[in-house]
Amino acid sequence: MSFILSEIDCPSVSVVENIKGKVSEMADTQTHNMFIETLEEALREAVTALGGAKKVGSIFKPEMLSADAGNWLNDCLNPKKRDKLSYAQIMWILREARSVGFHSAINFICHDSGYSNPQPVEPESEQAKLMREFIEATKQQSRNVARMEELARLNIRSAA
Fold first, then answer.
1. How many angstroms separate the Cα of 39 from the Cα of each of 55, 66, 112?
2. Which end of the chain has fewer CB atoms at under 10 Å, N or C?
3. Is the pTM of this model over 0.70?
4. Mean pLDDT for each consecutive 10-residue tract of the chain (160 residues)?
């Protein structure tokens, strides 16, 4: 299933850069709360890793004061409250948490669903991609030359 993110659900890159600041890198098994029992708790831990409810709430609700946006986000992460995050907002939190080295929320989702913990994958740089494509093209060219030489030898033998 794929999700379409709108500008309302997905903060701009410049806003995102402000929250990435100084978050300490955490191992997959480390969290602030060692016993996460619900998705809301897992997302709350991710929000904490991203700088707290006021900071993340302000990104989702820039029209609100930061304290009000933080309260709104806390309500969304409280199973007893009516407000809930959209799928796009949950995915944004998971992606941003991954970018600051916090993996406990996605690990909770996987564990709760019966999957093993995922491994974060670094995006391939454009230069690395071009180098990989160049090497593969060079190998293919060598295979083509060898095949053409073999066909030329076969044609010479059949003509003789």
1. 20, 24, 9
2. N
3. no
4. 34 44 38 75 96 97 97 96 96 95 94 91 80 93 93 79
